[in-house]
């Protein structure tokens, strides 16, 4: 059972009305909303491919924008943690190295996902018509679904523990929720793209 009193004490450290905290929440929520809206618009209209001259150029451009937005999100996340109090009992070597280990695992998932998918596979290439030959099932996809998202979440979790930051933990929960919602929208849509591809191949 969840210790409600302990949770209340923990999040008593967090000022959710702080401007930096609000900006961090908005940046976390904005990123997956942005790339899903833009990618679906591209899939429907091919407007970006026309502007940039090819689907690959358009995908690389969107990927670059997503990377910049993720850097902004991480900066906002860190600044929000720095502006709020730490839990003194967590400010120890044990917590720091636990957080470091969690971040390392998250980084492993993110990097290995990128290597398995490539740039266009990572940054929504299938919405641009750049489809992979088959579903990737090698590590880390053999361990869990959506390892890029959950690896990123683990990095934020570890970062929060390293800073003994309740605000960071709450923001990590926002990251996890935003990715969960993104998966609910992206998963069926991507599966439909590849279902149509297979149907087209079989009809030839």
TrEMBL record:
Residue ranges of the TM segments: 12-35, 55-73, 94-119, 167-187
Gene Ontology biological process terms in this record: methylation; phosphatidylcholine biosynthetic process
Organism in which the protein naturally occurs: Leucopsar rothschildi
Domain of life: Eukaryota
Keyword terms: Endoplasmic reticulum, Lipid biosynthesis, Lipid metabolism, Membrane, Methyltransferase, Mitochondrion, Phospholipid biosynthesis, Phospholipid metabolism, S-adenosyl-L-methionine, Transferase, Transmembrane, Transmembrane helix
Gene field: Pemt
Bilayer disposition of the protein: Multi-pass membrane protein
GO cellular component term of the entry, any: endoplasmic reticulum membrane
Record bears the keyword Lyase: no
EC number per UniProt: 2.1.1.17, 2.1.1.71
Gene3D superfamilies: 1.20.120.1630
Pfam family, one: PEMT
UniProt GO molecular function: phosphatidyl-N-methylethanolamine N-methyltransferase activity; phosphatidylethanolamine N-methyltransferase activity
Record PROSITE patterns: SAM_PEMT_PEM2 (PS51599)
Protein known as: Phosphatidylethanolamine N-methyltransferase
Classification lineage: Eukaryota, Metazoa, Chordata, Craniata, Vertebrata
Pathway: Phospholipid metabolism; phosphatidylcholine biosynthesis; Lipid metabolism
């Amino acid at each position: 059972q969840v210790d409600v009193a302990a949770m209340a004490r923990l999040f008593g450290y967090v000022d959710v009305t702080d401007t930096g905290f609000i900006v961090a929440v908005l940046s976390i929520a904005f990123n997956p909303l942005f790339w899903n809206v833009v990618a679906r618009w591209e899939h429907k209209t091919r407007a970006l491919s026309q502007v940039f001259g090819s689907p690959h150029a358009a995908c690389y451009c969107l990927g670059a924008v997503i990377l910049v937005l993720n850097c902004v999100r991480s900066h906002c996340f860190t600044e929000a943690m720095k502006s709020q109090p730490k839990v003194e009992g967590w400010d120890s070597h044990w917590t720091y190295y636990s957080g470091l280990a969690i971040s390392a695992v998250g980084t492993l998932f993110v990097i290995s996902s990128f290597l398995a998918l490539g740039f266009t596979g990572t940054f929504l290439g299938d919405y641009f018509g750049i489809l992979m030959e088959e579903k990737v099932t090698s590590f880390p996809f053999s361990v869990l679904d959506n390892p890029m998202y959950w690896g990123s979440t683990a990095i934020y979790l570890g970062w929060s523990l390293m800073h003994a930051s309740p605000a960071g933990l709450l923001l990590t929960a926002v990251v996890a929720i935003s990715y969960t919602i993104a998966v609910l929208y992206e998963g069926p849509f991507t599966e439909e793209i590849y279902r149509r591809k297979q149907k087209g191949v079989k009809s030839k």
